[in-house]
Heavy metal transporter (Algibacter aquimarinus), 87 residues
Amino acid sequence: MQTSLKIQNLKCYGCANTIIKKLSDIKNLSELEVSNDTVAFHYENENTLVEVEELLNSIGYPIEGDKNTLTAKVKSFVSCAIGRLNN
């Protein structure tokens, strides 16, 4: 199945790099793309989709419509910095 998720706090290529690196570790996920405020990918089952959503939230990029807490915003800044350093 293919889907795209609109996410919050995506600011730059550093954020995108972190998201791609973290999501690449998830099994049964392919054709991963991050652009603007969207993460698009193919997945095999609903468990994979839930895992993606939970991981995005844990690194500071909650799905649009979910609560965007101060903690999530701080995590996204840290993820962004790490993504810039690892580029």
In short: The longest strand covers residues 29-35.
